[in-house]
Amino acid sequence: MKLPYIKPYKTKMVENITTSTKTDREKWIKEAYYNMFNLRSDQVIIDLLTDSGTGAMSDNQWAEMMKGDESYAGSTSFLKLRQTIRDLLGFHSFLPTHQGRAAENILFSALLKEGDIVPGNSHFDTTKGHIEMRKANAVDCTIDEAFDTESTHPFKGNLDLNKLENVYKKYPKEKIPITIITITCNSSGGQPVSMQNIKDVSKLSKKYGITLFYDAARFAENAYFIKEREDNYKDKTIKEIVKEMFTYVDGCTMSSKKDAIVNMGGFVAFRDRPLYEKVANFDIIYEGFVTYGGMAGRDMAALAQGLDEATEYGYLQSRVKQIEYLGETSQSYGIPIQTPIGGHAIFVDAKRFYPHIPQSEFPAQLLAVELYKEAGVRGVEIGTLLADRNPITRENRYPKLELMRLAVPRRVYNNNQMKYVAVALKNVFDRRNEMKKGLKIIWEADIMRHFTVKLDKIN
Ligand SMILES: *Cc1c(COP(=O)(O)O)cnc(C)c1O
Fold first, then answer.
1. Measured between alpha carbons, how far is 448 from 15 in angstroms, rounded to an integer?
2. What is the per-residue pLDDT across 207-227, written as a single tens digit (0 to 9) for each?
3. Sign of the C-alpha dihedral, residues 352, 354, 355, 359?
């Protein structure tokens, strides 16, 4: 019999979970105005709000924390991280930042001006925020298959080359300071981009003289999917695939809270020294001196170790297989989810889950609320609440996909807990027709409303 895959680590320390009853949770979620971000973590049993900064560090990462060098300038922890980035990604220069959006902030401060165009594959919300804040425009060039949750395209994060070339033809080069490929594509469901697509986008961008960067938050998971799904790569190691992936771009922004398995941190890495110099000024103003940029020495040391661990096949296999297990168990109960199953989360299709509830009543948020009440599982809405209002007309924007995301922290939960989540989803699904109405907004902020919104049930 073929041996199954194995989690290549075991537990040395545990963190207890506070349990609760359905009655407790019904009271708490009402007090939280039906907003998941208002819940206290000890009111949650399985926390799948995000995989960002929630991973479990290894013994070797903790050992690196102890070895951290807290020197203001020229810290050896910085040098260690620089060497890891050089060896792994092939970029000679990098700037540390306190997290991913800070990396976006310093890069875009140097590159973007009003009226600029930034093409990409469904930019992440903070990326879009940083672009739009500068009165520039993020243009989504993702392939159409990404918006069909039933399509089984293996690389739904891919860019549509025609859409991209149309943008390159429509605007002068000076208006397009950068194109961004997000790997994996978070906004389309943790979907990977193929090496072939990366190569094609790189070639096209070179032809038009456009700078190309990755938003690399989940670069290792993307490399895993390339190995699994793209024929020429099945015999290569993850580190070889990563090395090749980064040869096709000019740099990257990174949220280390994702695939570097640390709780806080980020960076921008560059091939080109002049661009590094320009961005370095903004790192110094916003983050700190260029050898720490918002990070403690110990955090840079743990980050270097995390990058190395996250690009090992055994770890990535057990990570992605765990998401697959959650997804396939849910599917076996009839739950409609985005396919193929992505790298860091499953996305439940609320339009198919509650077809009788209109988008104006936030069906994905309703689903998140019902799942929390059922079992203390915290997911997050990726739908109409998150899409917010059109800044000019103030009308609700109705996105094509109305999803409830269950993001799985790295190395934290086991498959018994994933089974618990899937059964909870089943119970909510079985009583879906009892839900006649959704939710309404009773208070909201001017921007990024989903974090602080107050909701109530519609009677
Ligand atoms: C999380 C994330 C960011 C922002 O990073 P933070 O560390 O949360 O600031 C940017 N892009 C992608 C794809 C992300 O997933």
1. 32
2. 999 999 999 999 999 999 999
3. negative
Whether the CB of 258 sits within 6 Å of ligand 1: yes
Name the active-site residue from 94, 124, 233, 429.
Answer: 124
Q: Tell how far the Cα of 255 is from the centroid of ligand 1, in angstroms.
A: 5
Ligand 1 pocket check for 25: Cβ under 6 Å: no
Residue 188 has pLDDT above 90, yes or no: no
- Residue ranges per structural domain of the chain: 22-51+313-457, 59-310
What does the pLDDT look like over 357-386, one tens digit per residue? 999 999 999 999 999 999 999 999 999 999
Indicate whether residue 126 lines ligand 1 (CB < 6 A).
yes
Q: Identify the architecture of domain 59-310 in CATH.
A: 3-Layer(aba) Sandwich (3.40)
pTM: 0.95
Residues 35-51, mean pLDDT to the nearest whole number: 98
Mutational test site, ligand 1, from 37, 218, 257, 408, max ligand atoms within 8 Å of CB: 257
Q: What single DSSP character describes residue 404?
A: E
Q: Are strands 46-47 and 454-457 parallel, antiparallel or unpaired?
A: unpaired
Residue 215 designated active-site: yes
Q: Does the Cβ of 382 fall within 6 Å of ligand 1?
A: no
Does the pLDDT value for residue 404 go beyond 90? yes
The confidence score (pLDDT) of residue 459 equals 84
By CB neighbour count within 10 A (0-12 exposed, 13-18 middle, 19+ buried), where does 261 fall? Answer: buried
* Strands 179-182 vs 212-215: parallel, antiparallel or unpaired: parallel
Examine the residue annotation and report whether 125 is marked as an active-site residue of this protein. yes
CATH topology of domain 22-51+313-457: Aspartate Aminotransferase, domain 1 (3.90.1150)
